[in-house]
Amino acid sequence: MDILKVATDWAKAELVSTSFFIVIGIAFVLVSFGFWQFGKTDLARAYIIPMLVTGAFLMATGFGLFFTNKARITQFETAYNSDASAFVASELERAEATLKEYKTIVFTAIPLIIVACGLVILFVNTPIWRASMISIIAMLVVILLVDGLAHARIDDYNKQLLKTKQELKN
After folding, report:
1. Pick from 77, 55, 65: which is nearest to 13 by CA?
2. CB atoms < 10 A from the CB of 67, how many?
3. Which of 44, 65, 78, 138 is the most exposed place for a label (fewest CB within 10 A)?
4. pLDDT in tens, 36-92
């Protein structure tokens, strides 16, 4: 098994995945612009700033992850060629740490935040609070969708790294 190819393929898949944050962030900003131009009710006007902020956050997240993973692709070959077992060990450590972060943040904290936002919608009736909570929920759902797929990819990558670690020992 060529772990360098597996690592590079994983990073390239991450580039595609993080592009969704950017595209959906742009969509949120466009929706904000639409509410600004065409919103007639108080609730519609209340969406302008929350959608702009969540769109900007998604785009910043997407660009940050995109450039991090793009740089990682070129670093993989250098690290692998200098010491394959050290490369596998460091990638294994990083993948396991990322899996723990997904469990804590993506699959525990984000659902709890969504529930909290839902409760605010139930009990607070002002347009800006409703628009803000709905915008946050929409953003978090996007994060859950994209990161749910990323979790599956990094879990598979982690399994490939474990197999490679065993092969290098033999």
Report:
1. 65
2. 12
3. 78
4. 999 999 999 999 999 999 999 999 999 999 999 999 888 998 998 898 889 999 999
Q: Which two tokens stand for residue 55?
A: 């769109």
Distance CA 83, CA 117 (A): 48
Taking the CA atoms of the chain, what radius of gyration do you get in angstroms?
Answer: 20
Supply the DSSP symbol for 47. Answer: T
The residue among 147, 131, 144 whose CA lies nearest residue 28 is: 131
**Crossing angle (nearest 10°) for helices 3-38 and 84-101:** 40
Angle between helix 127-169 and 84-101 (nearest 10): 150
Provide the CB-side half-sphere exposure for 64 (13 A, CA). 7
Using DSSP's 3-state secondary structure scheme, residue 125 falls into coil
Residue 136 CA to residue 141 CA, distance in Å, equals 9
CA atoms within 13 A on the CB side of 90: 12
The string of pLDDT tens digits covering residues 107-160 is: 999 999 999 999 999 999 999 999 999 999 999 999 999 999 999 999 999 999
**Of 167 and 29, which is predicted with more confidence?**
29
Domain ranges of the chain: 3-169
